[in-house]
Specification:
Length: 156
């Protein structure tokens, strides 16, 4: 008997509780203070404005508790004259890691890009996040060595 596959669903406002808890854990992973209510407000605004696509992963045997998510934002590739997707957030709860959850979420993100005729999916990760880098490279992502990323932080 083959194992039950990881279930991936698109998050909606009905998923705000589980999505917010995971999003808060993701932010804590990046050394941000916990604030589940702020995470909930942020995601509620994203869902209301429909300016993101978030997928939730459910481990085999669990129908109610999400164990990971991927969050994507649409953008445009003006050179290819097509849409593109920015994969901005990927998180898997510690107890669900190394079980194929991240790969299943990444594969769903790739499917979304194909479904929408996108030219590509782009992402960034910390230079010391070698586990994620190994997954991205396994899936065919290529690290950019031609361009530098710049950011201008604006005061709150």
């Amino acid at each position: 008997m083959s194992p039950t596959p990881i279930r991936i669903t698109r998050a909606t406002t009905a998923d705000l509780d589980s999505a917010s808890a995971l999003f808060d854990a993701y932010r804590q992973f990046y050394k941000r203070p916990s604030d589940v209510e702020a995470a909930r407000r942020y995601l509620a605004a994203r869902f209301a404005k429909q300016d993101n696509v978030m997928y939730l992963a459910y481990a085999p045997g669990s129908s109610t508790t999400a164990c990971g998510f991927v969050n994507l934002y649409p953008s445009l590739d003006s050179l290819a004259m097509k849409p593109l997707w920015i994969l901005y957030d990927l998180y898997v709860a510690p107890e669900a890691r190394r079980k194929g959850v991240a790969e299943a979420l990444m594969n769903r993100a790739t499917a979304l890009a194909r479904e929408t005729g996108a030219s590509c999916v782009i992402l960034e990760t910390a230079d010391d996040n070698t586990t994620a880098q190994a997954l991205y490279e396994k899936l065919g992502y290529v690290r950019d060595v031609k361009f530098y990323r710049y950011a201008l932080s604006l005061p709150a």
